[in-house]
Amino acid sequence: MMEIEKEMDVEDSHIRCKQRTAESEKVLDYDYKKCVGCSICVALCPKKALAEGPLQEIAKGMDAPPVLIDPDACVFCGMCANFCPVHAFRMTVKEKVPTTENALATEIS
Ligand code: SF4
Ligand code: SF4
After folding, report:
1. CATH number at residue 66
2. What ligand is nearest to the CA atom of residue 88?
3. What range defines the domain where residue 76 resides?
4. How many domains, the chain?
5. Coil, strand, or helix at residue 78?
């Protein structure tokens, strides 16, 4: 069975989820300051890995992410990054090339 490592870290307004396998490293970067809370990503995530944050409190001035991410449920499909109208989600995929030391980096969004 393929080994999958996941981790999550927070830096300023960026919440980053990472998934590493023998073949690739994927990073899903959510910049919650860019997010307008439209909830398109929450509705379309095929794994229900996204949920609405405290939108009413945020509208009154609370500093919190409009979208909450469950990194265990996320399968790094990139749909949220592809459909977010303001590019608050970005996904980066680095494919590991087995025959060389070089990795091929692809920016999806
Ligand atoms: S990458 Fe896919 S599974 Fe993960 S949060 Fe986005 S839409 Fe959901
Ligand atoms: S689609 Fe983009 S702007 Fe809308 S809630 Fe999701 S991250 Fe925020």
Report:
1. 3.30.70.20
2. 2
3. 5-107
4. 1
5. coil
Q: What is the pTM of this model?
A: 0.88
Residue 49 CA, ligand 1 centroid: distance in Å:
6
109 residues of the chain, pLDDT tens digit each: 679 999 999 999 999 999 999 999 999 999 999 999 999 999 999 999 999 999 999 999 999 999 999 999 999 999 999 999 999 999 999 998 765 555 555 555 5
User: Does 93 contact ligand 2 (Cβ within 6 A)?
Assistant: no
Q: How many angstroms is it from 13 CA to the middle of ligand 2? A: 14
- Measure Cα distances from 102 to 22, 61, 99 in Å: 14, 46, 9
